[in-house]
Amino acid sequence: MIRGEERRIFRDYPILRKAEVVMIAGACRAGGALVRRSGFRSLHRLVSPLVQGASRVLPAILPEIPAGEIATRVRVAEVLSRTHENCLTNAYIAWSMMEARGIDASLRVGVRNAIGVVEAHAWVDVDGATVYDPGAQSPSFSAFDEDPLTILTRMGRAGSQSAGRRGRARSAE
To answer: Which of 102, 10, 121, 120 shows the shortest CA–CA distance to 63?
Structure first.
């Protein structure tokens, strides 16, 4: 989807869906800042209890939303919040929203060597198909076999510093 398409989608959304997308956009911006400052573990500790609580409440009060629609809402929120450079945070938020809705989604993290520079990328799969992929880059990355949440929480603050500040790895976005 092109950026203008996301803006058109947002314009056509009903008011409550616009409010939801604005909240997602805020989560994308805040989550990105939290990851840069304190590492992925902090984001996971903040969001995980919210997802667990939402998974008990949401199915009873809101209609079912397919994974593709959740992915679209996060893509629209990316455009609003201008956070398309942070694929990990945005993919994590999309994955969390799908998990809260009872969708069996997989957060995927992969790497590639691009002319001597190791790049990382994150995306979300459902039933083996990619449903959320910032920048549509996942086919060019080799995904880790291990659960990305285990890898990322193990990295903690040190992982975010080595990836962002010292330049040993960079996001492909």
So the answer is: 102
